[in-house]
Design brief:
Blueprint (H helix, E strand, L loop, with lengths): L2 H10 L30 H12 L17 E3 L2 E3 L3 E3 L5 H5 L7 H15 L4 E2 L6 H12 L5 E4 L4 H14 L4 E4 L6 H5 L9 H9 L5 E6 L2 H10 L3 E4 L13 H12 L4 E4 L6 H9 L4 E4 L1 H32 L16
Parallel strand pairs: 3-10, 4-5, 5-6, 6-7, 7-8, 8-9, 9-10
Antiparallel strand pairs: 1-2
Helix pairs in contact: 1-12, 4-5, 4-12, 5-6, 8-9, 9-10, 11-12
The protein binds flavin mononucleotide (FMN).
């Protein structure tokens, strides 16, 4: 399979709510939540994409050739690329019920495809228990190779879910703390809420696993995440799905990097679509990226093979971008790469 075939397949899927646009920029699907879009005006999703595109990079190829190395170690595990699949939950409500791809089948494509490409997939959670347990079943079937992302439920519920993740043998666990206001969950009888530092500390100290807080958008939020004892954060506005008119994730990244001061790992997501985008955010201080919606297209268009193909495609683009900007390793990608 090649990428063109993958896109062709995805476009033909009956009832697929994603339009498979040439550029996944949030314009065609604005306001479609449930669905693949950004909330209300859709501007937070659109801005994530637009602000990344405004950043330009410095080309320089006068240097002694080196072989480009995109590998890294994160939370004690080696990865081929700093590129990970973001958690996507609720496949039927968000992407339609005609195609038969539920949370189990989607996660199977993501977990297996990322594993084959030498990276890892995050999995989601949601209104129904199976949105958490079915992806976890896939992770278990793959020797624990996945990172479950738990919603900010009541304490006992979160701890129960962490225990299930531990049993599955995962290398880390995450919480999308920015799902705190999801009314749809409350309507389904599964309330989520914001959590103070003390409650997060209690959760994080209940596990030996590295804990990642996803949905940090301010320096203050990053400082509070540091206090909780988290090992990492994801700078994320949930792909613009939880609050309209937030800034783009790439806009807040530099102040968050300064606040963290190297004391936690920093991942980022929102509108990252190319290997060059990956280079840009690494140059601004991120350790790695999560990509959301394009992985849905890859999984629908080519299952695990599609996910592997897509990950390698972005990885190779990153390699090219590093070669063209004189970066032999991820550590060499510094702010000098950014055109000021
Ligand atoms: C349909 C859909 C469902 C999502 N479900 C979850 C989820 O269950 N947990 C979570 O942490 N984030 C969830 N997200 C947010 C993504 O993990 C990610 O933050 C976002 O999609 C990144 O932006 P991008 O899609 O522009 O790459 C979801 C996003 C979409 C589009």
């Amino acid at each position: 399979m090649d990428f063109k075939k993958l896109i062709g397949n995805a476009k033909q899927i009956e009832g697929f709510k994603c339009r498979v646009c040439p550029q996944c920029n949030g314009k065609a699907c604005r306001g479609e939540v449930p669905g693949p879009g950004g909330k209300d005006s859709g501007m937070a999703f659109i801005r994530n994409y637009d602000k990344l595109n405004e950043i330009k990079v410095n080309l320089d190829t006068i240097y002694a050739p080196v072989s480009v190395d995109t590998s890294l170690e994160l939370f004690g595990k080696p990865f081929r690329y700093p590129i990970f699949a973001a958690p996507i939950g609720g496949l039927i409500p968000n992407y339609g019920d005609k195609h038969g791809i539920d949370d189990y089948h989607y996660s199977k494509a993501i977990i297996e495809g990322c594993k084959r490409a030498g990276t890892i997939g995050f999995t989601g959670d949601g209104a129904k228990d199976e949105f958490y347990t079915e992806p976890l079943r896939v992770i278990q079937e793959n020797e624990g190779w996945g990172i479950p992302t738990i919603k900010p439920w009541k304490q006992e519920e979160v701890i129960k879910r962490i225990e299930l993740a531990e049993k599955a043998g995962v290398p880390a666990v995450a919480m999308d703390i920015d799902a705190a206001g999801l009314i749809l969950l409350a309507m389904a009888g599964k309330p989520v809420s914001p959590k103070p530092v003390e409650e997060l500390k209690e959760i994080i100290s209940a596990t030996k696993l590295p804990f990642i807080l996803k949905g940090i958008m301010t320096a203050k939020g990053a400082e509070k995440a540091l206090e909780t004892g988290a090992s990492g954060i994801v700078v994320s506005n949930h792909g613009g799905r939880v609050l309209d008119h937030t800034p783009a994730t790439v806009e807040v990244l530099p102040e968050i990097v300064r606040a963290v001061g190297g004391k936690m790992k920093i991942l980022i997501d929102g509108g990252i679509r190319t290997g060059l985008d990956v280079l840009k955010v690494l140059a601004l201080g991120a350790d790695g990226v999560l990509i959301g919606r394009p992985y849905v297209v890859a999984a629908f268009g080519g299952a695990a093979e599609g996910v592997e193909l897509y990950t390698n495609r972005i990885g190779v683009e990153l390699e090219e971008a590093m070669l063209m900007t004189g970066c032999g390793s991820l550590q060499e990608i510094t702010s000098e790469v950014i055109y000021k």
